[in-house]
Amino acid sequence: MASEIIKQKINSKEEEEAAKVEIWKYVHGFTPMAVVKCAIELRIPDILENHKTPMTLAKLASEIGCPQPSLHRIMRFLIHQKVFQETPAGYAQTAVSRLLTSHAKNSMADLVLLGTNPVILAPWHKLSGWVLGNKDLPFDAAHGTDLWGFGAANPELSKLFNDGMACDARVGVAAIVEGCPEVFEGLTTVVDVGGGNGTAIRGVVEAFPWIKGINFDLPHVVSAAPASTGVEHVGGSMFDLVPKADAAYLMKVLHDWADEECIEILKKCKEAIPQDTGKVIVVDIIIGGEEDDDLKGVGLLCDMAMMILTRLMFTT
Ligand SMILES: C[S@@+](CC[C@H](N)C(=O)[O-])C[C@H]1O[C@@H](n2cnc3c(N)ncnc32)[C@H](O)[C@@H]1O
């Protein structure tokens, strides 16, 4: 009996120690995000990639043009986080840091720069107010306007947002054209509704060159979108009129809106496509996978981000 009580005490002591370690991770939960942003701003992934072979601290510091001591601490942290690795010959890239280079095909650097931008971070401080019933979304409460209105008035943030979205669109559309090419069979025109800077529809047109693509988004978004062969940029609001096409493609758009607004968007899409053969193609994020699955964790993180930015939640 006495030994059982002692064992329980030891267990609860160990549990408490482990819990304290967990809490320290929350105390400094922002740190990994901020230090990865710092590495991107210092162009460390690009410098290591261009160098081709591992770099010593002295060489990396001279390439960046910074003193060694702070850089050493940054690299020590990011090596512990497995963002970079240390080899006998010096610092080297990992699969993670390669995704943080600026020109890699699957680069996610712009997405990190978007998520760590002060404009996107400010609404997190309004989250509890929103849960308690404040009428303004956290983003709106922090900035006095919604995400799209803020983007219209702030071209720099709008570009950051669209470049960030494009990171994911590149990967998403590549998976779709490879995994479900039959979806595009028989189509000669596709309108990407809320297509951002046109990355996704460009991917569709490159894969199926007989398709004429229309990138449809708010006027301030399409006016800054790069020109692309086979893609016409059209500005407007999907709540007013969607340009006519054989199919309407909605990627990561419906999750931004409440049910009534989604119905309005889908009605406009229906009006834009042929009544007998038309298609609406919806691509969106869902929360799936097992409880301890990393992907499920990412889905839940995205759901929290949607809670501060827009009206809807991800579904399962
Ligand atoms: C989450 S982003 C998705 C962008 C792109 N489809 C992708 O997958 O990367 C949502 C897009 O909807 C656009 N949007 C918001 N309101 C809109 C409206 N009323 N009409 C057309 N597009 C709109 C935004 O400008 C933004 O580009």
Summary keywords:
316 residues; alpha/beta; Arc Repressor Mutant, subunit A; Rossmann fold; five-stranded parallel beta sheet; two-stranded antiparallel sheet; 53% helix; binds S-adenosylmethionine; O-methyltransferase activity; COMT_C
Q: Can you walk through the features of this model?
A:
With 316 residues, this protein is an alpha/beta fold. It has two domains: 1-103, Winged helix-like DNA-binding domain superfamily/Winged helix DNA-binding domain (Arc Repressor Mutant, subunit A), CATH 1.10.10.10; 109-309, Rossmann fold (3-Layer(aba) Sandwich), CATH 3.40.50. Helix content is 53%, strand content 10%. It has 16 helices and seven strands. Strand 6 (247-251), helix 15 (259-272) and strand 7 (279-283) form a beta-alpha-beta unit. The longest helix has 26 residues, at 2-27. The chain is globular and about 75 Å long. The mean pLDDT is 94. Bound molecules: S-adenosylmethionine. S-adenosylmethionine binds next to helix 12.
Concise description?
The chain is 53% helix and 10% strand. It has 316 residues and is an alpha/beta fold.
